[in-house]
Amino acid sequence: MKSKGHLLHIAVALAVVLVAFLITNSMENRYYYKASYVVLQYVVLATAWNILGGYTGYVNFGTAAFFAMGSYTAVALIKLWKPPLYVLLVAGGAVSGLLGLGIGYLTLRLRGVFFSIATLALAVVLQMFMTNWEFVGGGAGTAILKPRSVPFFSNYDEFLFFVMASLAVAAVFVAWLIENSWVGRGMAAIRDNEEAAECMGVPILKLKLFATTVSGAMMGIAGAPFSYFVVFIEPSSAFHLDYAVNSLAMPMVGGTTTWLGPLIGAVLVGTAQQIATVTLSAEMNLLIVGSLLVGFVVFAPEGLVGLFRKLRGRAMGRSA
């Protein structure tokens, strides 16, 4: 029965993405594709962040570093060879995954705020490096021409939306697999009490390295199509603070202990940000995220999923 419930949740997530695609496909305005792309991109980033920050308990402030490495890996390959998008996705994921593995090996012996500061420093160092790498545009940035057409799609924005929707579904499915395996149970033990988990024989170093690698790879894959999406890429856009803030806030709004939390948080917060960008201003985005984050930390620290479970438990207790 439990496995059937999990499969039902996966089916619901797939149905939501499919309905969003059908609705967006019926609209001629390309803005809806772009806005939906951004929301789906944050589904991938929030889910990736949660594998390390939610499941394992290591808060990562360096999301922008892994995202940007995927983006700039794609830019370098486009300038050298102009490969198809699936090659860029694989390459961006591989580079960011290896970066996650290396950084994890060097920093996972740090704990708490020290690990978080180390990941933030990583983003700063990599941004300085990209600013001085002239081949990918340096600090001035570089323009990337997107393909004029793609088979089966009316325009490239529609194609990018479909790609990101597929990546969002894949990311959520990977998170679900991890959560419902011995790997997820080991990560939960590390999050709850690392010393006790080590005494119980949990391979904590291997699991933490696995978490940093998978999380980094997923962020890099999300960043690989970024240059085609924005057309002009520069370090300030690829390493933007929004990626670090949103990827942390969205799982906390939805709930960090389950795969469903980042999905709910990314859809709700991401949609609110896109509406605010159109109706108010883009500068309102961080204010929205900050307000929601403070509110949920104070009133619902376990997120919407945790709040729903608590309310359901009270209702069942009363009925009993």
Layout of SSEs?
Elements: H1 2-25, H2 30-53, H3 63-80, H4 85-107, H5 113-131, E1 142-143, H6 156-179, H7 182-192, H8 194-199, H9 204-223, H10 226-230, E2 232-233, H11 235-238, H12 241-254, H13 260-279, H14 284-299, H15 303-319
Antiparallel strand pairs: 1-2
Helix pairs in contact: 1-6, 2-6, 2-9, 2-12, 2-13, 3-4, 3-5, 3-9, 4-9, 7-9, 12-13, 12-14, 12-15, 13-14
Q: Can you describe what's shown?
A:
The structure is a single chain. By secondary structure, this protein is mainly alpha-helical. The protein has one domain. Helices cover 77% and strands 1% of the residues. The chain has a two-stranded antiparallel sheet. The mean pLDDT is 85.
Helix content: over 70%
Structurally, the number of domains stands at 1
Task: Name the beta content range.
Answer: under 5%
Helix and strand sequence: HHHHHEHHHHHEHHHHH
Total number of strands = 2
Report the structural category. mainly alpha
* Poorly predicted parts: none
Mean of the pLDDT scores? 85
Terminal CA distance? 22 Å
Largest sheet: 2 strands, antiparallel
Give the CA-based shape.
globular
Strand order of the largest sheet: 1-2
Give the count of helical stretches.
Answer: 15
For the structure shown, list the relevant keywords.
single chain, 320 residues, mainly alpha, two-stranded antiparallel sheet, 2 strands
